[in-house]
Design goal:
Blueprint: E1 6-15, E2 23-33, E3 38-42, H1 49-56, E4 64-69, E5 72-73, H2 79-89, E6 90-93, H3 105-115, H4 120-133, H5 149-161, E7 167-171, H6 179-196, E8 199-203, H7 207-211, E9 215-220, E10 223-226
Parallel strand pairs: 3-8, 3-9, 6-7, 7-8
Antiparallel strand pairs: 1-2, 1-4, 4-5, 9-10
The structure holds adenosine-5'-triphosphate.
Adenosine-5'-triphosphate (ATP) binds at residues 15-16, 23, 25, 43, 45-51.
Family: Belongs to the ABC transporter superfamily. Macrolide exporter (TC 3.A.1.122) family.
Protein name: Lipoprotein-releasing system ATP-binding protein
GO biological process, one term: protein localization to outer membrane
Length: 227
């Protein structure tokens, strides 16, 4: 029950392995994230944080090492099993919202729940509750193009949490916003995360935002070091 939500052990990854263009990105990454823990991942551009988050979220596989999600070793599991765990247990947030433009805010949060077998009524209720928690319930019927950048990201946060994941992985979730908006939107994200008690790894270049998390780590030359 007290298993870490995420455990990465000895993760290595190179692109174009064996070719003159080989790029060794991750070199023996060990990371354990406890239930409810929020970890800041700070890395210079190109250091490999997207690669690391994709491996942790089962969107990519390492060359070596193991990924455990909530106590289950995902090494060698079938694509079907990996997809199931990813859909159920992992939420993603990116720098750009990636909302579906033809659907309203609330529909963007309802759809992933329907794909997960939740009834339409329950999905709608949860979506509205999440929008309310990030302060934009009054924008529920707006399409993404009718929302500000900060509002779009708030909707993306709700969508990531729609299926009650155990682990949130966020790649520069406010990196696309001006500093004042970034600050407010980040505060909304932290409130949402703390309110649900889920674990998170949040990549950011912003050291002030990183300081608001439980632990700060830096990706440096393919390895994790304390900030
Ligand atoms: N498919 C690929 N083939 C070859 N090299 C790649 C590939 N994907 C990423 N890389 C290289 O691996 C390194 C890490 O990429 P990654 O996208 O993980 O970095 P990042 O830290 O997320 O960068 P940024 O903050 O700029 O998004 C970079 O040098 C990149 O050029």
């Amino acid at each position: 029950m007290n298993d870490p939500v995420l455990r990465l052990s000895g993760i290595s990854k190179a692109y174009n392995a064996g070719l003159p263009s080989e790029v060794s990105v991750l070199r023996g990454i060990d990371l354990t994230v406890a239930p409810g823990e929020v970890v800041a991942l700070v890395a210079p551009s190109g250091a490999g944080k997207s690669t690391l988050l994709h491996i942790a979220g089962l969107l990519d596989t390492p060359d070596s090492g193991t990924v455990e999600i909530a106590g289950t070793d995902m090494t060698g599991q079938s694509d079907r099993k990996r997809t199931g765990v990813r859909r159920r247990d992992v939420g993603f947030i990116y720098q750009f919202h990636h909302l579906l433009p033809e659907f309203s805010a609330v529909e963007n949060i309802v759809l992933p729940q329907l794909a997960n077998g939740v009834s339409k009524a329950a999905a709608q209720t949860r979506a509205l509750h999440l929008l309310d928690q990030v302060g934009i319930a009054h924008r529920a019927s707006h399409r993404p193009a009718e929302l500000s950048g900060g509002e779009q990201q708030r909707v993306a946060f709700c969508r990531a949490l729609a299926n009650e994941p155990r682990l949130l992985l966020a790649d520069e979730p406010t990196g696309n916003l001006d500093p004042a908006t970034s600050d407010q939107v980040f505060a909304a994200l932290m409130e949402l995360v703390r309110g649900t008690g889920l674990s998170a790894v949040i990549a950011t270049h912003n050291l002030e935002l990183a300081a608001r998390m439980d632990r700060q780590i830096r990706l440096d030359a393919g390895q994790l070091v304390p900030l």
